[in-house]
Amino acid sequence: MNVIDKIKKRIEEEQLIKAGDRVVVAISGGPDSVCLLHALHCIREELNIQLYGAHLNHNFRGIEALKDAQYVTQLCEGLDIMSFVKSIDVPQFAKNNGRTLEEAGRILRYQFFDEVAEKVGATKVAVAHNQNDQAETVLMRLLRGTGLQGLTAIHHKRGKIIRPTLDLTRKEIEDYCEEHQLEPRIDETNLEPIYHRNKIRLELIPMLEKEYNPNLVETLARMAEILKTDHDFIEQQAKDIYKILAREEEAGSITLPINGVINLHMALLVRVLRLAAETLVGKGEVLEYRHIQNLYNLLINSDSGHKIQLPMGITAKKNYHKLTLTINEEKEMFPFFYELNNLEEVFIPEVKGHFSFELRDASDLSELPREHNCKAFDWDKVSHGLIIRNRREGDRFSPLGLKGSKKLKDFLIDQKVERIERDQIPLICNGDEIMWVVGYRISDQYKVTKKTKRILKIEFKKS
């Protein structure tokens, strides 16, 4: 199968390009990108696509870099392809931002590609990674230490980035350029073992091919493809589980049931935790292995109320039966106190809810309300005036069904109410006495009995 047929086959199998797409081709002037641009140009009418060239001068190589830009411009003109060329001082950017030259170059390249794509309305950006790049990446990540996802290495498609030449060997690409007399530019720095990747390409891979496996590049690329299939399957299982377990109780916070999470296989547990973090910040690869370890220790070994800090401003908190990941800062709830002069509906801004009241004869109410947000009380026992407030130090409460009283703090702990939420619970009081811990339980002292003559029904509704 020749180069163009291989590219067409991969485009079709992976659905890299659709009819009508506008495609920006990242072109350095080297053999890989020149081959990619020329091959896509040859099949552009068949695919019904429009091509644009994008070249970034990194200012690494002085006059040679200017010659690269000139070559790219002339190549695109010869193919009747609109091109965009930009010059950026990558070394200065690397210095100012504490990045290596490789990292800085990659960041600025993709920013430039995005700019061009937005300018021309492109839906895809094609970059020219090949099978040798894939093998090098697998080895780099293996030596650094990585998991299954890392060993899948470079993908044919990620977002709008596509890699149609990923299945081609470097030799196939060089032969294609020679066959079509393209005369690409050669970056001499790629032939020097001055960068980590160059050392792997020029020293490690040739040694492994000679001593262990002459088909090493193909073998590593095939392994990455196999592992990607396995990874995609596990990832999909994790996403399905995440949809079942995760709850967004408020904007900027995601909760997971601890029992549901810790019973998962570790491969799924790790991915569910990562999905929660990524969903919060809208960005992938937020949590590293050490962060996952810290989260697991929080789940297994920590008491309720403990929390840890994660990247991107995420806080993870363990609260009884659930784990909460949030990017919201905990805000102190200040005391609130509302004395009611009548039984008209009232809005309490601190809890963002309305209280409504209905007074009626006991004989008119056939059944007491049982909803957690609607309760009935013996009105004739209310002698000091109704008050709505939040908790304060020393509060005691006589929970319905229990003899005597207990500290409100202890009651809320027994109910597994998170510490940050305790000050947000409204209390209905008769003077200083608590009649109802709203959402939880009424006081035994104010319950409706056979002797009750008048009933006060109180309902709470969130706005």
Structure overview:
With 463 residues, the protein is of the alpha+beta class. The protein folds into 3 domains: 3-227, 3-Layer(aba) Sandwich (Rossmann fold), CATH 3.40.50.620; 246-326, Uridine Diphospho-n-acetylenolpyruvylglucosamine Reductase, domain 3 (2-Layer Sandwich), CATH 3.30.465; 337-462, 3-Layer(bba) Sandwich (Phenylalanyl-tRNA Synthetase, Chain B, domain 3), CATH 3.50.40.10. It is 41% helix and 21% strand. Strands 3-2-1-4-6-5 form a 6-stranded mixed sheet, with helices on both faces. Strands 7-8-11-10-9 form a 5-stranded antiparallel sheet. A hairpin with a 2-residue loop joins strand 7 and strand 8. Helix 2 (31-42) crosses helix 9.
Briefly, what is this?
With 463 residues, this protein is of the alpha+beta class. The chain is 41% helix and 21% strand.
Descriptive keywords:
463 residues; alpha+beta; Uridine Diphospho-n-acetylenolpyruvylglucosamine Reductase, domain 3; Phenylalanyl-tRNA Synthetase, Chain B, domain 3; 6-stranded mixed sheet; 5-stranded antiparallel sheet; 21% strand
